[in-house]
Design a protein that fits this description.
elongated, 60s Ribosomal Protein L30, Chain: A, 11% strand, 8 helices, 41% helix, MotB-like_N_dom, 5-stranded mixed sheet, single chain, alpha+beta, transmembrane helix
Length: 278
């Protein structure tokens, strides 16, 4: 009986001390790990190669797999954790935004308006061209008779001369130019099934000619509104004909690309503030 108790006590004693073996192994590995970290923190090329060869022998890896890459110096990035660090602004790639002061832009649009009104004074008096705008945009309205035959989207020979003169005014500038086509409520007829197609094709043809005449294609856009944005009262046949038009809208640099928003029918279009007369 006593022998059994002695054996049991010896067994229990050895069991209690067993954890110390695992603990000692853990400490040994932990020490080796930190020793390795310390070694690589002060590594040079020769030490790196020695460690590499040791690892290669352990894992049986081809030597070329972990050869160090020769670098021509360590790139120094910005100190993002420095509270005084301020990233450099990214330079703009658009040279056309270099001079976008409000006064300069307003004077540019005013200059376009004055040149247009001076050059096409007779057509303005005949109500074939109208010019309107605000400090943000300028709109040149061209009536159908001076651009197209009824139901056609082909620019007439006389219209080419007119558009060429307009292109000479717009070409030196960097402002966005939107060309908008409109019709009245009468059926399109001819080769077009709808007024959508007729108005869009007319706008596209004007854009194409302006580009050929020297206006940058990157600045140009075309859109067709069909009969759905009349500028004049459709119940009056004479006034309704004036809804068949093309508008050339010049907007400020760096500003929103503003589409024409006609006023109420019979009110003559935009009701925004006009430029002051010179």
């Amino acid at each position: 009986m006593k022998r059994r108790r002695r054996r049991q006590q010896r067994f229990e004693g050895s069991q209690q001390l067993r954890w110390m073996i695992s603990y000692a192994d853990f400490l040994t590995l932990l020490f080796a790990f930190f020793a390795f970290l310390y070694a690589i923190s002060n590594i040079n090329e020769e030490k790196f190669r020695n460690v590499s060869r040791t690892l290669l022998q352990i894992f049986d890896v081809e030597p070329s797999a972990i050869e160090p890459i020769e670098l021509e110096g360590t790139p120094q990035g910005p100190d993002l954790f420095n509270p005084l660090y301020r990233p450099e602004p990214i330079p703009s790639t658009r040279e056309d935004l270099a001079d976008t002061e409000p006064y300069h832009q307003e004077s540019t649009l005013l200059d376009i308006r004055q040149r247009t009104e001076s050059q096409f004074q007779q057509l303005i008096q005949d109500q074939l061209i109208s010019v309107s705008g605000t400090e943000n945009w300028l709109e040149i309205n061209l009536q159908e008779p001076i651009l197209f035959s009824p139901g056609s989207a082909d620019i007439t020979d006389e219209a080419e001369a007119l558009l060429y003169e307009i292109a000479k005014i717009l070409a030196p500038l960097n402002n966005p130019v939107a060309v908008e086509g409109y019709t009245d409520q009468s059926p399109a007829g001819g080769e077009f099934d709808t007024n959508w197609e007729l108005s869009a094709m007319r706008a596209a043809n004007v854009v194409r000619y302006l580009q050929q005449a020297g206006v940058s294609g990157q600045r140009l856009s075309a859109v067709g509104f069909g009969e759905f944005q009349p500028q004049f009262d459709e119940t009056n046949p004479v006034r309704a004909e004036r809804n068949r038009r093309v508008s050339i809208v010049v907007t400020r640099l760096g500003g929103p690309n503003i589409l024409t928003v006609p006023g109420e029918a019979g009110q003559g279009g935009q009701t925004g503030p006009e430029f002051a007369e010179p």
